[in-house]
Amino acid sequence: MIKLNNKYFINSYKLSLEEKVLIKILFEDNFKDSIDVSKIDLDNLIKITSSHLMLPSLYSNIINKRLSKLFPTAFINYIEEIYKLNKQRNIQLVEEINFLSKILNEKEINHVFLKGSANITYSIYQEIGERMIGDIDLLVDKKQLSLVKDLLEKENYYPSEKTNFFEINEKHIKRRVNKKKIFAVEVHTKLTNNAKIIDENRMLKNKIKIDNVLLPSPKSMIKHTIYNWQINDNGYSQFRYSYRCIYDYIMLTKKYRIDVYENTKQYRDFLITMSLLGVKESEINESYYRKIIRKQIKSSKRKRYLYYQIMCAKENVKRIPEKILMILQNPNYLRYLFKKHL
Length: 342
Known about the structure:
The protein is mainly alpha-helical and 342 residues long. Helix content is 53%, strand content 7%. The protein has helices at residues 17-27, 42-51, 55-64, 73-106, 115-122, 145-154, 200-205, 218-232, 243-256, 265-277, 288-299, 301-318, 320-329, 331-341; strands at 111-114, 135-140, 158-159, 176-177, 184-188, 208-210, 213-215. The radius of gyration is 22 Å and the shape is globular.
């Protein structure tokens, strides 16, 4: 039996019972009162959890918090199997991180591992199989980018796409894939388009080493966790949230017993969103403008769709100067556009 504390959900998102239970399992340690788990739609719980890439974390928390007896055996067996598969992937991930770390260190490449790869190396999770990871992300000194490309190609990491028109101006080069490896590699030289939000040079300067793997400092990790979701994944502009991102933030702050606060709209919104979801209370007040938009886009699918289309159009307009510059620099890009859109 699992308790749901209603005070957490006052003035919050309109969450389903299954999502409230997910929050409870992932983010709370003490279960005093309870509800009947038989009322939960387990298919919907799996659907919601999967959409946030959190099924392995759900299983790990159910087991570690001794809640498995509350759920049907078939449900536990299903998410256990997913956890085991992810654990095997992450064991291989560690091997590939160590391999890349070795070749980068041998060539004295100024770099750090990012995101899930860094979190796994930091051991912020209860179990290695908790975090679902797609690629191995790296931040490298932009002065060494050509050297990194050559080094990866020497080790049979090749671009996953043939069109590389934006590599000059993008924050990262195209994903590199090695057919004999599980994980692709994504190399970044910038983490956002705003150097005031994340200073890549400072992150590289303040790096630390764990088991011969170079990582951002815990403070830098926390900042990047939030800004990567809020800016690069459009969490702030689209009023979206990610339990995986929130979970990473909570695990980092717990392990290192530090919290970081920055007075930016994206950072404040992240803390407000956690409060609205009932994950972590915050005294920060949301602006009237954000409240109105949040209320409207949550009220109907049609309004939400319209808002997202407006935001996509806004982003496309921002990229017009960049595309014009690319056409001038590379005539092949114009032919690529015609082939793509005609």
